[in-house]
Amino acid sequence: MKTTILQPRFKDSEHFKNFWIKGNGKQLIDFSGAKVCFDNFDKFSPFYFEGDQLGDEVVKDVYFTKKFNEATRQIEHYIRNGVSEDDHVHESVKKLFLKTQKIPNWLDYNLLKKGAELCMRGNIDSLISLRDYCLIGGYDYAYLSKPLIATEALKKGAVKRLSETLDFWVNVTRYDALEIHKKGYEFAIKTRLIHSYARLSIKKHYKNWDTENWGEPINSWDMMATYIGFSLVFLHSLKKLGNTFSTEEEKGLFHLWKYVGYLLGIPEELLPNDKKQATEYFYLWTSIQPPSDKDSVLLAHSLLNESLENPILKYQFQRRNLRYLHICCTWFLLDDEVCKRLQIPEVSGKNVFPYSKILINKIYDTIVSRKTRIEKGNKDQMKVLEDYLNITKNSNFH
């Protein structure tokens, strides 16, 4: 079998240089104190052609040998009750659960708590950051989006996709959620197996998959980049929107996503401990990604138009207004060049809402206690999730 030697092929491209010399990449370097270079490229690049072998074996042994619902019930039983060395289960199942049930020696529960509190304290800004910076910004990396296209995510619709992302994010960022057998742990294991199921399905059914350029479907290096989105990019977005955070909260956020990544089967050497490491890792990964293509634009517009399709808001004028606000935040949070590539519509007064948010956050920061903000943020985020789940679970909504 031919072995592909990966190079940082886009490091001299305009989109790469503009991002890191004058765009959000430059801001990330200033924000983190990162020293970016290509010295470690060969250390990380092999992961572009590697997936989660252990997760794949579990899917082959469990999901591919019985009906999907039956397999899911079986996995849920293992998640909630645990697997021991003496259990009569598939060897792959035993390996996966004995590994994920073992607490790594680096895990710090206090830091997990601080990370969860920052996610909750960010309230609606956390959800804006996820949607209008992390998700839509990720679509600008053309190869990263290919598994979504291959699994026909556009047919499923942005409301359902957003609901699933929100369900995952909320459930792994609550107090004690990641303790063994708890809900966040369950979401991490299930998501890991969904990724494996999708990877194996793409390899079997999607004949046009371009491994040389796109890597292994849902490969470990792309997974690293995705989870840097949940940590580094998310943190940068909160800062842009006028939120403050302590050193301990910042450490906690990276620690939380490091542990989620560990449960998801991302190799530990790809999981950054802090914003400096995350920026340096992200720099290397972006050098293999071309800018937006037509699939990227379709995905971005599907997400933008989600506000118009979503019946959570009753009246059309409310939905149009929500879409406008998301467009304003997207222009504010992403580089203009990225917005133009993704064909984000130009709107008037696009800075009014983001700058209002910054002002409100500064006032809110001084008059409302941290504890109250965490409690309110948790309540408001849970309400948004509940609304989404009611829409997507109680209907054939696509």
UniProtKB/TrEMBL annotation:
Residues 146-347 form the ER-bound oxygenase mpaB/mpaB'/Rubber oxygenase catalytic domain. InterPro entries: Lcp-like, MPAB/Lcp_cat_dom. This is DUF2236 domain-containing protein.
